Amino acid sequence: MSFSRIVWKMAKANYKKYIFYYLCNTFAVMFFFIFSTIYFNRQVDEVKISGSIQYLLIIPGVTLVLFTILFISYAHQIFIKQRRSEFGLFITLGMTDRDIVKLVLLESTVIGLLSLTSGIIGGMIFSKGIFFLLMYSVGIGKVAFHLSSNMFLYTVVIFIIIFMIAIGRSLYLIFTQNVITNIKSKKTAAALEKNSPVIGGIGAAFVILSIIGVYFTYAYLSFGGELLYFWAICTILGVYISLNQFISLFIEYVRKKETYYYPRMLFLTNINYKFKHLTTILTLVISLVMVTVLYGTLNLSIYSIEKKEVLENKPYDIAFLQTETKNNLDQETVYSIIDQEDNRIQEYLQIPVYTHYERWEADNSPVSYSFMPAESFRELTSKSFELESDEMLYYINFEFENSELDKYYWDNAARFAEENLDFNLKEIIAENDMNVIGDGAFFIINHLEFEQLENQFDGYKSVIHQINVEDWRESEEATDKLEEAFQAFNKETPPIMDERTEGLTEEEFFKVGSKIKAFQSIKIENGISFFVMTALSIIFFFGSFILLYLNLFSEIENEKEKYRKLHAIGITDEEVKQNITKEIRAIFFMPAIIGVILAFGYFISMMRDIGGIMANPGLLLYFSGIAIVYLLVQFIFYMYARKKIIHKLM
Amino acid sequence: MAILEASHIVKIYGDIKEERTTQALNEISLSINKGEFIAIMGASGSGKTTLLNILSGLDKPTSGEVTIAGEKINEISRNQLALFRRQQLGFVFQDFNLLDSLTVKENMMLPMILEKKTTEDINQKVQELAALFGIENILDKYPYQISGGQQQRTAVSRALVNNPSIILADEPTGNLDSASSADIMECFETIVENSSAAILLVTHDIFAASYCQKVVFIKDGAIHSSIVRENSREEFAQLIMAELSVLGGRRDVF
């Protein structure tokens, strides 16, 4: 039997190790490829250039690259740990270094190529599945699955680089360590290094500082979102360092409290051992949990904030501007279109407005000043007030958090009022009472004075229509019909060619504004980011589960050995079960809980740019909801893993 | 009074209905009294380890029964057996069977922790045994940091923590050099002198067996003969060697 036959025989006997290594690499490639199909998707790319989605993709992107790097090197480490002892044996039996290099390269190339192929194929299938699922469940027709050369290029190049670094590292280890260390490499793995509280502290400081960093980055976004890359790396690094140190430090501390420590000794030492050896994996899982929970929440939050804005900025369901020649259908026609049997008109306001235009001295652009009779304003706001003929109100149809802003509006109008108007300003009112149609601010004057305006200034008469129906969600068809009817009418009248349509088309100027349309446009805009984030959450959830699961199973031989020893000294099956349960629980839930806490820190920081979490307490509810759902799903997976492992071990 | 009583133990591997079966043990009967120190010797494959596994309840006999401290161990459930093992039996293995993630001290106290003994009891017992076997200064070391002899002394201490009525040892010196072997056998002598526990060890090491009071020889799964030590250890070793040559059918050992 030739030497290469022996090598081949050993490989066949150890096929499980190869399969494990191959699967790990396949998963890494698969996740990366799924992410690239999203990142390089044409429709997502369009939104990326214009919108905030680019920033949103930074943190998952960084996490995913780190995930790939750490995952592959982890898989490689486990694989090579076993191989090193074999190589040590081969070298003592007379295999040359050249032969070893040849063997490692051959093995790696075969496994690498296989993983790359199956990973990409698996990635394509899964990605297509995710796209399909989301398109149908969320109803976004816009994002379609497609492939591009970039997706393949990035996946292949990044994988090959990481893979080669891992191989280089193990070859270095094989040749720099002496033969005995190689042969014993399986055993020495159990050695635990010393821990340092200082290093642990530095790790924790990294995590805290990075979250504060995110807070300030979001508070002053002008710093540049690129900083987010940096903070994401800082957090992950910090988690890694502190995990590596803290569990051991904790156990060292607990060891002194004997009455606490003794009954839990078996559990605590096992957890210490696992956390020490699985630092990389646990760090990854924590990052994945964090990203999943954080993005799930952001997803819901953004959607709800924008929805809230739509509903709040549009007190009326349908609104339009009418002049003598445009949108001028009589009330009966408008009623017949909108007032449906199952969706009656509840309120119909018609507010006459007179608008006068002047020109800015600076650039000759038109500036408008609008007037509204006090009567209509009373009707609109249900305020009771009387205006003398020499009094006026200034009404701004916005609600400002900052009262400086109404001053700014008024300052502009005051100059005009001082020069042209003979009224005393009684009050400035800033509140959002109607949909913004035409101007956003009005001088409110006595209706007798209002009638007189056209003698005083040039201007345009118009009427703002504001309509409420029973259910705005059902108003889409009516809105479309109204729009059509107006377009048909407007076509017959001469086009408007004056200040009013400067910088704006006539169509836009007379467009029917409606809650339902605004709501739908937000749904589409958010749909794509919703899609991206949901897809990422799915990938990351499965990623974290597979990591935990694979890693528990990679240790199964050691575990069997451990329980065999314990069985010999008289541990009962019940005690074994309890022990396994405790351990798996810690391994499944510790990272999940740390991840959720970190996600919370990031979430609070990211809410900075919409006025902080205190301004949006409802978002906390989303966060808790998503965190709870995550933990529940994790619980189901945990039960599954526990059953499997107990079955394998007993 | 007999602590361990084995009667007519038969162990057959493989399906009895089929022809390809191996009879590992054939009608072995054995009785061990309090304070006895007995070795079982025999060639490789003679059934030594099978016998020990059956005596300790790790394996079940095909027929026959084993009674330890009045308890018939083949009649009790797997869980009760585990409890029984850690309360009544001390086990010492050829490969020490220490957990790598625990220190020497922690390995020693593991059976007591499983028994839910109090912290004071645990600490006291660990100190006592560590002093007895000279391992006080390595209590906080991990198994991979200490020598084989030290590991086996740790394992012997662990076997003793719950004051077992009998200690079963499977080739306890098999992985040790001669100095460490002597060490361990002296430990066993100390146990026999200081407590009422009986010790049964399986070995093919003449040097180790010479420490015992009695050696039982088995051949092809059955008891072949036994000799009792009456004089010095050196003379006993000569006797054992002579008996082994008869057993192996070879007289030209040297």
Automatic annotation (TrEMBL), chain A:
Transmembrane portions of the chain: 20-40, 52-75, 110-139, 151-175, 196-221, 227-254, 275-298, 530-552, 586-607, 619-641
Record has Thylakoid as a keyword: no
Major site of localization recorded for this protein: membrane
Membrane topology qualifier: Multi-pass membrane protein
Localisation: Cell membrane
Sorted UniProt keywords: Cell membrane, Membrane, Transmembrane, Transmembrane helix, Transport
ABC3 transporter permease C-terminal domain ranges (all copies): 62-178
Pfam families given in the database record: FtsX
PANTHER family attached to this UniProt entry: ABC TRANSPORTER PERMEASE (PTHR46795:SF3), ABC TRANSPORTER PERMEASE-RELATED-RELATED (PTHR46795)
Family assignment from sequence similarity: Belongs to the ABC-4 integral membrane protein family.
Protein's name in the database: Peptide ABC transporter permease
Organism encoding this protein: Oceanobacillus neutriphilus
From TrEMBL, chain B:
Keywords: ATP-binding, Nucleotide-binding, Transport
Pfam name, any one: ABC_tran
CDD domains recorded: ABC_MJ0796_LolCDE_FtsE
Family matches, as PROSITE patterns: ABC_TRANSPORTER_2
SUPFAM superfamilies: P-loop containing nucleoside triphosphate hydrolases (SSF52540)
Family: Belongs to the ABC transporter superfamily.
Gene3D superfamilies xrefs: P-loop containing nucleotide triphosphate hydrolases
Protein name: Peptide ABC transporter ATP-binding protein
Presence of the UniProt keyword Nucleotide-binding in the record: yes
Species whose genome carries this gene: Oceanobacillus neutriphilus
